[in-house]
Amino acid sequence: MVRLQTSFDYHNLLVTGGCGFIGTNFIRYLMEQQDFGGRIINLDKLTYAGNPHNLADLSVQFPKRYVFVRGDVAEVKVLARIFEEYEIDAVCHFAAESHVDRSIKKPDEFIRTNIVGTFQLLERSLKQKNFRRFHHISTDEVFGSLGQEGYFTEETPYHPRNPYSASKASSDHLVRAYHHTYGLPITISNCSNNYGPFQFPEKLIPLMILNGLEDKPLPVYGDGKYIRDWLYVTDHCHAIWLIMKQGLDGETYNIGGTSEKENIYIVHKICDLLDQVVGSTTIPSRRALIRFVEDRPGHDRRYAIDFSKIENTLNWSPQESIDSGLLKTVQWYIQNQDWVNQVRTGEYRTWIDQHYGQLE
Ligand code: NAD
Ligand code: DAU
């Protein structure tokens, strides 16, 4: 098989799940890049995790280069219309149900969106003439859990252990199968835990920041010694764009943050930052708000990424440290109370229904 680097002058890039956390950051990042002059079509179902206001200013600033469509990646008719009408030549596929706790309580939507949705998107991409690249956004969770030593590489066997990671693993396999069987041009990235602006406050870091700001309890699962490798979201966006531009057809790239930390370390850091930045009138230190609570079932102990492949071949490495990234993140949540109130109260959901009506 010929494995040329893709020329990356994509004209009509379909970004799925662009109103979620990483998708929002990616679209904003890409619109600022000098080497991208194409159009972005953002297809998002607007589940609880998707907020169209995140990108509303782009529709005004770039009326010809940014298009938003509310729709479901698992719906064949919606995909057919979009691929045809907008002459899609590349896909960057973020859309997913992304929260592990939700997948444990009710996996149904994880199967439909993450597996069936990816399948339908692959099927439609295969039919498209002059299609250039399907980039699939995946996770380090597909590799399972590590002991105290070692790192996930691109060769680590898959061993997903919760419904979310099993659904993502399944989607990765489908993407590879479409490359090997039908020759669809693809790349995959498996990334560690992201944090930064626009993250829905069900995930550890924004939840701790927002609860901490209101002196509410900070729930830490189990003994708090579970380890994640944290990556500031803009570093992830940069890596994705590099792969889309220069990554080899059919290849997978691991992306990590060199910030392996126990959860309790992260929570302590957030408490201390909030104490410094905003202080508190009711308690001397927010660490007093920490509560060790019942553990997540099947909780993976440690994730850690070996990202030497993308470092050596595409010259990527993370630019933010956990200290600089957490400070930026805390400041963003403090400065964006309107966004916080919107997503917490679900205020914009009524607007979505009035504005978009029923899903296609
Ligand atoms: P998110 O939950 O913040 O956003 C998901 C977005 O997808 C939302 O806008 C939602 O409305 C949309 N969506 C859900 N179902 C859809 C459907 N059927 N059709 C169209 N749109 C739909 O998720 P995120 O944290 O931004 O994650 C984005 C991607 O990155 C996911 O594929 C996730 O598995 C992967 N990932 C996330 C992380 C992380 O730390 N957040 C790390 C590695 C990989
Ligand atoms: O590793 C990449 C994955 O990171 C992504 O694929 C997922 O989409 C993303 O949600 C994230 O999964 P995690 O389960 O690691 O993220 P979460 O923020 O939910 O939890 C991070 C760690 O913190 C985890 O060990 C569970 C723990 N935790 C989480 C919450 C919400 C707590 O201790 N207390 C909490 O309240």
Automatic annotation (TrEMBL):
User: Which InterPro entries does its entry note?
Assistant: dTDP_Gluc_deHydtase, NAD(P)-bd_dom, NAD(P)-bd_dom_sf
Which GO molecular-function terms appear in the entry? dTDP-glucose 4,6-dehydratase activity
Q: Which UniProt keywords apply?
A: Lyase, NAD
Domain NAD(P)-binding intervals:
14-326
Q: Which reaction does it catalyse?
A: dTDP-alpha-D-glucose = dTDP-4-dehydro-6-deoxy-alpha-D-glucose + H2O
- State the needed cofactors, names only: NAD(+)
Among its keywords, does the record have Lyase? yes
**Which interval of the chain is the signal sequence?**
none
Task: Tell me which Pfam families the record gives.
Answer: GDP_Man_Dehyd (PF16363)
The EC designation for this entry is 4.2.1.46
Q: Does the keyword Membrane apply?
A: no
**What protein family is recorded?**
Belongs to the NAD(P)-dependent epimerase/dehydratase family. dTDP-glucose dehydratase subfamily.
Query: What is the recorded name of this protein?
Result: dTDP-glucose 4,6-dehydratase
